[in-house]
Each structure stands twice: as C-alpha cells, then as structure tokens.
Amino acid sequence: QVQLVESGGGLVQAGGSLRLSCAASGSIKSNNAMGWYRQAPGKQRELVAIRTNGGTTNYQDSVKGRFTISRDNAKNTVYLQMNSLKPEDTAVYYCYANLLFGGETRSRDYWGQGTQVTVSS
What we know:
single chain, seven-stranded mixed β-sheet, four-stranded antiparallel β-sheet, 0% helix
C-alpha cells in the first residue's frame, strides 16, 4: 500500500522560510508526478506546485519566485522550499503524487495527510 508521509510544517513569521518534505513508500513501479496543494479555511484546495517525472514544473502564480519544488526520484520524495512567506500562504499543505503501484495496471492519485503552515504577520 502506498503512503505519503509529510513533514516540515509549522509556525513562522512573515518573511520567513519553511521546507516541506514528502516521501512516498510502498511498492511503487513508476512515479509520474509529485507536488503540493494547499487548502485555507473556507477555500477550495488549490495547486501550489507540481513536478513531473520528466522535469516539467508548474507553479501557482502567487508563489512564483518564492517557492521552489524539487524531487529526489530515487527516494520518491518531493520537497517544497518556501521563502518570503506571507500570511496569505497560511493553509494546510497536502502532498500529491500520481503513482503506479505494484500489482496495478494504471496509475492513481495519492494524497498525504496534510501539514499545517501558519504565517504570522
């Protein structure tokens, strides 16, 4: 069974930095994409950043130039370096992965449990 385990959330002052990590475990045959979404109170879940296995990267406009996504394909791990954090970045951040799990014939979407990021003004 595939598991996504996140770490790195917390409380930080505006202008500060945090680094999120997410490791996928299980019998993974292929890893097509990994990324991060977030959901603030009263709002819908939204894409923050995603990186495909081929290296294509996509960011939400509001985080461009401040956040950097990276992957360690050998470890099935994705990172999100968040700099110059703003109060509006406050949300629960969810790790996402599109994986082909051993024994299955097509890839599926998987989600982490979420990690809270709070930016104080």
